[in-house]
Specification:
The complex is a heterodimer. By secondary structure, chain A is of the alpha/beta class. Helix content of chain A is about 35%, strand content about 10%. Chain A has one domain: TIM Barrel (Alpha-Beta Barrel), CATH 3.20.20. The chains are: A alpha/beta, B mainly alpha.
């Protein structure tokens, strides 16, 4: 893999601060606020439904520094979920009965207890999703990860912005595309993506300041392209919108495109997507155990609202249901067009 | 971002071709609204998935945009082609199709020239 860039945190960039990011977003002139858009759609205030997915962010360590990363993850980040938070999360998963565990980061497999987490969560009978950057599993100390995932039937959700090197490498780093293909071949070799119970889904996001296309038609084309060009198969393609947070916000600011991009998201507001946003059924746990409505709120340091539980240590499922979701201008990213979620388009 | 499109050739006219005017296209319905409605309904129907995919239609539109040299259309369909999942190679080939047809249209008139040369010559 080529040169890995410093994170905003390492570079001490102004937008390394979540508060600074919130200020930038709040200062963008838009025709209507997210709350007003929700109200116009009869959805204000946006509230949660029963939790279906527990999403754990294991930390900000990653072997890549993708240009659009909303986490500002990278090799120079030291935030890693401590053992007590991991134990509390597993206990909550067990007692709450939440059916799905979604493991994200950073590169989650770089967490020292990732293997144990996979074994114990699947041992509880939970569906486990692993958000994989594909290149981390090629690192010398992590080459066993794909076989572990296969042995426990963990669903792999792998990031690949485009089916060509030029676009992918521009966003994720030089050489990432070829390494991603190698990882996908290994996963295919283990039976992933072949319709035999080992699920391999790809995630594409635009390499630029435009919205993703229609998921279904893109999926058909991607399947054909990945198969004929590289002999790689997969199950589903998810389209995800770039969120104006952290490094993508920094990109927008450096190029003077923040207002244009946010207004594009606002003009594409889709009430059907808003009604189905994933934060309504997801509970997001930060590396330090703080509870959030979603991973994006986590990065903007906007914790769950209300007087209920604030950390995984005092989380109770029933006390978290029906809470009002914390929203802001960034939420237009999940409601634009066909919508965007960790499992792709919504509407 | 610059407020106006490249200042060269036919677009070098003060007050014309501001990129934000593209977003005001719908205002054309301030006059003759029934015609605008028919046009925009037709436009939407043309670009819907059909015997050609929406992505293929977007590439055709990009090529035509270059052929008619419409700055608004080039803006719109550069973005639209990317959003439909096309890549730079495909988009550039589409523009070359426009260039080939435009260039070919000039060149094929050379046959007219040849006819005249044959008529006038000895």
């Amino acid at each position: 893999m080529g040169l890995v860039l410093p994170t905003l945190a390492k570079a001490r960039a102004p937008l390394a601060s979540a508060a600074a990011q919130r200020r930038v977003l709040d200062d963008v002139p838009v025709p209507r606020s997210f709350g007003e858009a929700l109200a116009d759609a009869g959805l204000f205030p946006l509230t949660t439904r029963p939790v279906e997915i527990l999403q754990l962010n294991l930390g900000k360590r990653c072997n890549q520094t993708c240009a659009h990363c909303h986490v500002d993850a990278g090799p120079d980040r030291s935030e890693v979920m401590p053992r007590d938070v991991l134990e509390a999360s597993l206990a909550f998963l067990e007692h709450s009965g939440i059916p799905t565990l979604d493991v994200t980061g950073g590169a989650p497999e770089l967490h020292p207890d990732f293997r144990e987490l996979v074994i114990r969560a699947t041992g509880l009978g939970r569906r486990v999703l692993h958000r994989c950057n594909l290149t981390a599993v090629l690192l010398p100390n992590y080459a066993d990860i794909p076989a572990l995932l296969a042995a426990h039937a963990v669903e792999v959700v792998a990031s690949l912005p485009y089916f060509q090197a030029r676009e992918t490498d521009r966003q994720r780093g030089a050489g990432v595309f070829e390494e991603s293909l190698e990882a996908l071949r290994r996963l295919n070799g283990l039976g992933y993506g072949r319709g035999r119970g080992l699920v391999l889904n790809l995630v594409t996001n635009p390499v630029g300041t435009f919205l993703p296309g229609a998921q279904r038609s893109l999926e058909a084309r991607w399947k054909q392209q990945m198969q004929t060009r590289y002999g790689i198969v997969f199950d589903r393609l998810f389209t995800i919108t770039n969120m104006p947070i952290s490094r993508f916000l920094d990109f927008l600011e450096r190029h003077g495109r923040t207002e244009e991009y946010l207004q594009r998201l606002v003009s594409a507001f889709n009430p059907a997507a808003a009604a189905g946003v994933m934060c309504r059924t997801t509970l997001s746990v930060g590396w330090d155990g703080t509870l959030y409505d979603c991973d994006f709120n986590q990065m903007l340091e906007l914790p769950v609202s209300g007087s209920g539980p604030r950390t995984i240590f005092d989380a109770r499922r029933e006390a978290l249901e029906g809470r009002v979701i914390t929203t802001g201008p960034h939420c237009f990213g999940c409601t634009a067009g066909a919508g965007s979620s960790c499992t792709g388009a919504i509407a | 971002m610059s407020d106006s499109l490249p200042q060269a050739g036919p677009v070098n006219v003060p007050g014309y071709y501001h990129h934000h005017d593209l977003g005001r296209f719908g205002e054309i319905g301030r006059g003759a609204p029934a015609l605008a409605e028919k046009f925009f309904d037709y436009y939407a129907a043309v670009f819907a998935e059909g015997a050609l995919s929406a992505r293929e239609k977007s590439l055709i539109a990009l090529a035509v945009a270059h052929s008619v040299q419409c700055p608004y259309c080039i803006d719109a369909y550069s973005k639209d082609a990317l959003e439909k999942g096309s890549n730079l190679d495909e988009m550039t080939e589409a523009v070359h199709v426009a260039a080939a047809i435009r260039g070919g249209a000039s060149l094929v008139h050379g046959v007219q020239m040849l006819n005249h040369v044959d008529e006038l010559g000895m």
